[in-house]
Specification:
CATH architecture of the largest domain in chain B: Sandwich
Strand order of the largest sheet of chain A: 1-2
CATH topology of the largest domain in chain B: Immunoglobulin-like
Strand content of chain A: under 5%
Number of helices of chain A: 9
Structural class of chain B: alpha+beta
Radius of gyration of chain A: 40 Å
Strand order of the largest sheet of chain B: 3-2-1-5-8
CATH class of the largest domain in chain B: Mainly Beta
Shape of chain B: elongated
Number of domains of chain B: 2
Oligomer: heterodimer
Order of helices and strands of chain A: HHHHHHHEEHH
Number of strands of chain B: 10
Largest sheet of chain A: 2 strands, antiparallel
Helix content of chain B: 25-40%
Chain lengths: 197, 230
């Protein structure tokens, strides 16, 4: 039988109190875990942001004696401050200037490079599919088959193909509605083109 | 039929399809305008140098972006309802045809004057003559006279099918045990293709519909020919 003696209760309560009063990251850190740096959000913070032009506190809080004397000088007329002093005062109050905050980075190169790499890999996969997976193209895609497809007033095969045919028939002086002549012309041109390639 | 890599509708073969084309142009233009405006706003917000963090409300813009969409919706709804009611108008068809879906072919019955019925199977790719359309040609076409209101009664003998001809703006489910009716007028002579539009088994993609519209005098020749054949 376990008796909860006064001593045991005391030590239990002490452990509970320690757990309540320290925060979990301190306990984790003391037990060998890596813990991120904690920011106390209840205190005024300094941030370099374009939409917070005047942060809640100055950048440098604790000042050396030289900096203290400069701050005293700032309380007088500013025309007596030299250029270097003005710059030093700025750097006491702020970490980065606006141009420094808005400096472009080279991140876009990494992003674009990554995109191209994946596009290239996709291209490899597509090419492999074309060679090893797809069945043969049906014979209805052949040029002479498509040339024979007749539609009233429209060209039935690929629009760009049809436009090319129309252009050729115009340039060789044939009426565009004359399908038979166009088919003959097309076969003739195809032989010429195939010869070229 | 649809051309390769065609994105838009096929040329209309019936007055209803013409109406649908024009309505689609109107609705799509509204969509493009709204999308362009949204895209512009997104780009403007993303590229803005300064941010106003203290905006709480604005009654004026809230009113605008409530009233303007309501107006746009009305402008879309009015033509849409007009076409909806147009489809249901009384039109006294001259011809009634029954289109029955089977696995995996269509059969057409012209029983107004005499018993004419035939099956319409897809022509397999290896049987096509050069120039025919792959997966779209059928051995017997459903022939219709031009400029005559026609009624098609659609049903099925086994499983669900759907009788669709996009160029005429027609699609109606073929339900076993049920008769669905659709009426249309074909404006011009021509051949109009469609495909079965309800999954019906292994050869669902291989039971096309071909409607051939010819002038009335030739239609009578065709019916005599078909009657002799069957």
């Amino acid at each position: 039988m376990l008796h909860l003696t006064a001593g045991r209760v005391g030590s239990l309560l002490a452990r509970r109190a320690t757990a309540a009063l320290t925060n979990s990251s301190v306990r984790m850190a003391s037990h060998g875990h890596d813990v991120a740096e904690m920011v106390d959000m209840s205190q005024p913070l300094y941030v370099d942001r374009v939409d917070i032009p005047l942060p809640d506190r100055p950048y440098k809080d604790t000042l050396s004696p030289a900096e203290e004397s400069l701050k005293q000088k700032e309380k007088g007329p500013w025309s007596q401050l030299s250029k270097e002093e003005k710059l030093a005062l700025y750097r006491l109050k702020f970490c980065q200037t606006f141009p420094e905050m808005q400096e472009p980075s080279a991140e876009w190169k990494t992003v674009l490079g990554g995109i191209f790499i994946f596009l290239g890999l996709t291209g490899l996969v597509v090419w492999w599919q074309k060679v090893y997976v797809y069945p043969a193209r049906p014979r209805t895609f052949d040029d002479d088959w498509q040339a024979k497809q007749k539609c009233i007033d429209t060209v039935c095969h690929d629009r760009s193909h049809g436009l090319w045919l129309l252009f050729l028939s115009f340039s060789r002086g044939l009426a565009k509605n004359n399908h038979e002549e166009v088919i003959l012309l097309y076969t003739q041109i195809k032989l010429e083109v195939v010869g070229f390639f | 039929m649809a051309l390769p890599s065609q994105l838009g509708f096929q040329d209309a073969g019936s007055p209803l399809m013409e109406e649908l084309l024009h309505f689609h142009d109107h609705a799509l233009m509204v969509v493009f305008l709204i999308s362009t405006m949204v895209l512009y706003i997104i780009v403007a917000m993303v590229t803005a140098k300064l941010t106003d963090k203290l905006v709480l409300d604005s009654q004026e813009i809230e009113i605008i972006w409530t009233v303007l969409p309501a107006i746009i919706l009305i402008l879309i709804a009015l033509p849409s309802l007009r076409i909806l009611y147009l489809m249901d108008e009384i039109n006294d068809p001259h011809l009634t045809i029954k289109a029955l879906g089977h696995q995996w072919y269509w059969s057409y019955e012209y029983t107004d004057y005499e018993d004419l019925g035939f099956d319409s199977y897809m022509i397999p790719t290896h049987d096509l003559t050069p120039g025919q359309f792959r997966l779209l040609e059928a051995d017997h076409r459903m022939v219709i006279p031009t400029e005559s209101p026609a009624r098609v009664l659609i049903s099925a003998e086994d499983v669900l099918h759907s009788w669709a001809v996009p160029a005429l703006g027609i699609k109606a489910d073929a339900v076993p045990g049920r008769l669905n009716q659709t009426t249309f007028i074909v404006n011009r002579p021509g051949v109009f293709y469609g495909q079965c539009s309800e999954i019906c088994g292994a050869n669902h993609s291989f039971m096309p519909i071909v409607v051939e519209a010819i002038p009335l005098e030739h239609f009578e020749n065709w019916t005599s020919l078909m009657s002799e054949e069957t």
